[in-house]
Design goal:
Length: 114
């Protein structure tokens, strides 16, 4: 990559950071400074597409400029959060089972709903 190409890439990253509303350089990124991205399939690189993740705005800008990721849609974000909730519940159940505890998921009876 030539110095001109590197300068252009840096300029693109900085522009993307402005669009994402990233904190100034050197500032600590907080969880609210994260964005949801989805990977773009790149068969020649062996990269599966459709994987949604939460990343800091600075990392997001680099991934977007490099063309490996895009901003996630609302449906992809909802699916990501549902999957994370399922994984957390499964991990909690496994941790309790390792301690010899059981988790019971009770459904309210029809009689109690009235």
């Amino acid at each position: 990559m030539t110095s001109e190409e590197r300068a252009h890439r840096r300029a693109c990253i900085e522009e993307t950071l402005k669009e994402l509303g990233a904190p100034p350089a050197g500032a600590v990124e907080l969880p609210r400074d994260c964005v949801m991205l989805t990977s773009i399939e790149r068969r020649f690189a062996g990269m599966a597409g459709g994987v949604t993740m939460e990343v800091g705005k600075r990392a997001a800008a680099v991934l977007i400029v490099d063309g490996t990721h895009r901003l996630a849609t609302e449906d992809e974000i909802a699916a990501y959060h549902a999957d994370q909730a399922e994984r957390k519940a499964a991990a909690n159940t496994a941790a309790l089972a390792a301690e010899g505890r059981a988790v019971l998921h009770l459904q309210p009876s029809e009689r109690r709903k009235k």
